[in-house]
Write a structure and sequence with these properties.
Number of domains of chain B: 1
Number of helices of chain A: 10
Oligomer: heterodimer
Number of domains of chain A: 2
Strand order of the largest sheet of chain A: 6-7-8-3-9-10
Distance between the termini of chain A: 16 Å
Helix content of chain B: over 70%
Structural class of chain B: mainly alpha
Shape of chain A: globular
Order of helices and strands of chain B: HHHHHHHHHHH
Number of strands of chain A: 10
CATH topology of the largest domain in chain A: Rossmann fold
Structural class of chain A: alpha/beta
CATH class of the largest domain in chain A: Alpha Beta
Number of strands of chain B: 0
Helix content of chain A: 25-40%
Strand content of chain B: under 5%
Largest sheet of chain B: none
Amino acid sequence: MSAPPDTREVILEARELTREFDGVKALDRFSFKLHRGEVLGLLGANGAGKTTAMNCLLGLTLPTGGDLFAFGLPLHQHRIAILQRANFSSAYTALPGNLLVRQNLIVFARIYGVKEPKKKIAELMELLEISHLADRVTGQLSAGESTRVNLVKAFLNDPELLMLDEPTASLDPDIADKVRKVVRKVQRERNIGILYTSHNMRDIEEVCDRVIFLHKGKIVREGTPTDIVAQSSSTNLEDVFIKIARDGEVIDEPAKEKQS
Amino acid sequence: MNFNTISALVLRYLYLYTRSPMRLVELVFWPVVDLVVWGNVTVFIQANSDAKFGEFILFFLGAMILWDIMFRAQQGVAISFLEDVWTRNLLNIFVAPVRTLEYVSATFIVGTLRIAITAIVLSLISWFGYSFNIFQLEWWLIPFFANLMLFGWSLGMMSTALILRWGQAAESLAWAVPFFFQPVVAVFYPVDKMPAWSQPIAWCFPPTYIFEGMRDVMKTGSMNWNYLWISTGLNVLFLAVAGCLFLWILNLTRKRGLLTKFATQ
């Protein structure tokens, strides 16, 4: 029995999104919907198309086919209005290392037009337990501290849509756990829709309501983490990930056998 | 266009300069070295030549200061962009609600601030060190500075576009691009003393009219107004071409997916 359709507002939608690089399809007619208040995990091995999808959704790479909508608006025609209501954090970007944490956050608060930026920054830093870092030089922070500063930047404008690209990459289990908990807490409190990529299946199981597995630019699995594990011959999400990464669509076979 | 966004981006550069005194030193170090070298050469030649030639040699100092204005304007745009590349901040900017025009405007403002600092320092040194008063150009200085700044901005956008297209391997263009033009824009010598074949080329670029005008003003106290109009007209054209080139390459990098590679390398 399939799950009932989600009636919440769709805040991000890709329709038949395709992106080719030199004749190779990094994304092949990729379609999905992200609802308000939902955390959607985008999973796949390296080269599966996650980063390309994220880059298309952020307007950094133009798709070769298909359409993208955010808040019901075509993304490329309303990029600035959409970005005003969205935010992004990645383990692979940094805030200028030679500025103080406070200075970096003030700059981004002003870019996003945050009212009472100092108060907002103080609140978010307290929430992420990094108030003591305000006057530290950004480039001297540890990976965990830097990730949490990036998250403060990502929450500054109270985004309705948040894209998190491997937010727990290179974090120790303790900090990764704290980051997951904070993301989930803020997401629930503010009803944010989050698109979340990670190679850490613990992240996905704890944070994501629904996941999409990509393989060679196509969706090969979609559902809640629990359902996906239940429908496969695997015992956990990590096994499912490994099987999809190695065999791609062949993952369907054991599931069918189990059902029969 | 949102002025809060522009002021936020300018604030970021101001933080950067106040946090890094070496950047402030870099702003004045090379211009001062150039000025001292040219100033000493001027003093030496003045002492060993007739009075008329001694006057002509002062053109070098005026030309050097004006050239530096143009160079600093170009640097303001190109280096501000490279600061974002070096700090891996470019992606944060491109996924924030920042319009290309707002980003470029902020680099223009930073370029203007850089020029102001350089111009003040050079003026003081040339006045006290070599008795050369750049303010003898009087009100002409304003259109001279404005036109050279506009051309510097155009070159800055062109340099940035080329760096965007070819990545960090092309970084040296941020310093090299103005020097492609230096031989043909009659910075240190009049156009009619250039080889005949190069003279029509020289008149295609806005700074040529300014450097010719500067020599006229220093000699006669006035200049041909047409030089100013032509220079301004050409600057508008160059600015439009540079802006289109920048937007075209930015779009091309998005189409080819190069922007993220470049921004995260």
